[in-house]
Amino acid sequence: MMIKEFFKSNPIHKKIVPSLDVIMIARLSSFFGVWAMVCIGMYIGDLINNTVDINSTTLSIPTSILFLGISFICASIFIANQIHDLEVDKINNKAKIIDNFITIEFSKKILFFLLFIGFLLIIFIDLLVAIPMISLYVICGMLFTNQNFNFKQNMFMNFLFYIFLALFLILSGLIYSRNDMAIITLITLSLKFIFLFLLIYGAIVLAINILDREGDRQRNRITIPQNIGIIFTSIIAFLMCLFSFFIGLYLKEPLSVVCSISSIPFFSYLIFRGKEIDVIRSIRYPILLINFYLFMIYPLLFYPIVITYYISKYYYWHRFSLHYPTLLVDND
Asked: Is residue 260 a contact partner of residue 242, using CB atoms and an 8 Å limit?
């Protein structure tokens, strides 16, 4: 209790957290999804090569460096999108670090530094993994944040931003675990499995769109919930999980089956009750469950996830007085 009280209430932490600003602009909590997608790609590659090693605890230095490089590139993308979405995040009452504690100009310098180091690390480990990561940055870090294109004002392009993010992360993990298989053959064989996980991820994205609908409305962004309504969006999200489940059963692919069937109840609540707590649960809990099931295949993923969780929780509490990230959702 004394240790908990120290970390929660001691005023010294208010002096410590400003030094974490340069790290936290990367939105560390977003990496729960990033690392999961890369691991899913590695899993699919191993599945196709019949080399899935359940519960492996062998630490691979090259794999760790690759994950670090991918994380740096994704961090640069998240920074670019935060700069682009400053007004929307303000309307949605999101905790803002950029333009509050760190200037936009300095944020851009951090962005380019992370981008440069990230690609150096990836090229050092596996040059071919740089191909999907370059595509990822060009589409999600440049095109989607370009005011001239205004992609985020388009209903489908707004949704596709997240789908492209997941797709290229999965492809990065897939290419890394290719063994000696030709990349074209590997990708062709993996498409049906990638589709299963994109369905689940897409359902979560629709829930995120519902949660952010007020800021999007005030900024005249046309998202799927803005266009067809919350109920129909919730039904589509539910059906995406349901299709993933049945297709996964047909293909006899266990990971997508357990991820989808575990997520379906949250999207069911979203349809029949549709309160904000149901929206939040349909985002947080499926991501938690996906990571939980991945721990069974890649147990070492547990450590960066837990460390990131508690660093983020520590930072947001002492910087913004927010309990975030948290698995708890207040009831009505």
From this structure: yes
Cα separation, 31 vs 37, whole angstroms: 10
Ranges of each domain in the chain: 16-320
CB 83 within 8 A of CB 104: yes
Looking at per-residue pLDDT, the higher value among 172 and 321 belongs to 172
Least trusted range by pLDDT, from 62-76, 137-151, 246-260: 137-151
Contacts of 222 (CB under 8 A, 6+ apart): 153, 154, 155, 158, 216
CA dist., res. 13 & res. 311, Å (int): 12
Give domain 16-320's CATH superfamily.
Answer: Farnesyl Diphosphate Synthase (1.10.600.10)
In 126-182, alpha helices (H): 130-136, 155-176
DSSP assignment, residue 98?
B
The answer to pTM > 0.90 is: yes
What one-character-per-residue DSSP string does 241-292 give? HHHHHHHHHHHT-HHHHHHHHHHHHHHHHHHHT--HHHHHHHHHHHHHHHHH
Q: Tell how many helices (H) and how many strands (E) occur in the chain.
A: 16, 0
Residue 116 confidence (pLDDT) above 80: yes
Q: What is the mean pLDDT of the chain?
A: 89
- Picking from 332, 243, 221, the residue whose alpha carbon sits closest to that of residue 280 is 332
The residue among 332 and 251 whose pLDDT is bigger is 251
3-state class (DSSP) for residue 328: coil
Identify whether 325 is preceded by a cis peptide bond (ω within 30 of 0).
Answer: yes
Q: Return the axis-axis angle of helices 230-251 and 254-272, rounded to nearest 10°.
A: 160
Burial annotation 236-259 (CB, 10 A radius, 16+ → b, else e): bbbebbbbbbebbeeeebebbbbb
